[in-house]
Amino acid sequence: MKWSAIHLLTFIGLTSCVTSELTGQGLDIAFLMDGSGSVGADNFIVMKTFVKNLTASLLEFNTSFAFVQYSSGTTIHVNFHQFQRTGWENQVDSISQIGSNTYTAGAIQTVVNDLFDSSAGARPNAHRILIVLTDGQSSDTSTYPSATALADRKNITRYAIGIGNVFDSQSATDELRSIASSPESDYVFKVDSFEALDKIISSLVKRITVIEATVMRRQIVRVELQVNLTFDLNNTVVQDEILNQIKLKLQEQGLPSNTKLSWIKQPDGQIFHKKYNEKSVKEQKKSKDEF
Ligand SMILES: *[C@@H]1O[C@H](CO)[C@@H](O)[C@H](O)[C@H]1NC(C)=O
Ligand SMILES: *[C@@H]1O[C@H](CO)[C@@H](O)[C@H](O)[C@H]1NC(C)=O
Ligand SMILES: *[C@@H]1O[C@H](CO)[C@@H](O)[C@H](O)[C@H]1NC(C)=O
Ligand SMILES: *[C@@H]1O[C@H](CO)[C@@H](O)[C@H](O)[C@H]1NC(C)=O
Ligand SMILES: *[C@@H]1O[C@H](CO)[C@@H](O)[C@H](O)[C@H]1NC(C)=O
């Protein structure tokens, strides 16, 4: 018996709980903190708190971190080698502010050259992410094109975070755009104040873990469908065909094409369980998909 599209009547309840696992290609994440004089001492501490909060949220994944500060010059305080999985909070806390000018583009160049390198503990196969924090416009904008071209060649994904109302201006926003990877909507963030950095953590975590698609997620979902009773649901060919139809439907709705779908057998050895409901018979089962 062949599966046909008209038999694919309903999918219900594809939301589910998600468990994340520490696997995948890995993420090497560098923070580039603005230590220029325009950042008040209190705000520099808030910036470090943001860096710690974001690091803490990403620690459960296959991640490594580096902490860098820029002002007139660039200081790599903690490279990927030096990052300590226990004790990293102190590593961030002990960074003291330089407090001079703002040479953001030069800092990006330094990080791309010196930090995203195996000599600094960058892992060869990990995805590379640079998060640039800035409170204002830099004095070396002409260096952006070469710095970001170099970053692109080394596959470094860049997030630009502008802090403060200076980014209400078009030219300051343009600068964030020159720092960040494109599209702007995914990689440029603006907040009104240092305190407001807190509000972007969850969306940054989501972007970093989902857009980079390096985090393997296993999701178990329960699907309820109506099928033509003449099918032999014990037939693996039929099972595969149904799964394939589900996959095609989900892909239409944005399921990444590298997702694996498979059935889960219940303790009784069966995938499908009948549900007597109204006049129709619905088959219940569980499916498992892996991202
Ligand atoms: C974590 O990422 C590293 C770097 O790409 C990779 O070599 C390693 O296999 C990953 N670990 C797991 C458990 O997937
Ligand atoms: C960048 O990514 C491309 C495509 O995945 C790959 O072919 C290339 O080797 C990568 N370059 C570096 C420097 O990792
Ligand atoms: C950091 O996390 C703490 C605890 O969740 C929160 O109170 C604080 O507002 C966060 N700060 C920043 C800047 O993210
Ligand atoms: C079930 O499938 C058979 C064969 O394709 C068809 O003749 C029958 O009308 C179908 N029944 C329903 C309820 O769709
Ligand atoms: C599949 O086979 C089992 C016995 O192995 C049987 O109990 C069950 O009703 C069958 N299911 C269907 C849908 O044919």
Automatic annotation (TrEMBL):
Residues 1-20 form the signal peptide. Residues 28-204 form the VWFA domain. InterPro entries: ECM_Assembly_Org, VWF_A, vWFA_dom_sf. Keywords: Signal. It comes from the Eukaryota. SMART domains: VWA (SM00327). Pfam families: VWA (PF00092). PANTHER family: COLLAGEN ALPHA, COLLAGEN ALPHA-1(VI) CHAIN-LIKE. This is VWFA domain-containing protein. It comes from Alosa alosa (allis shad).
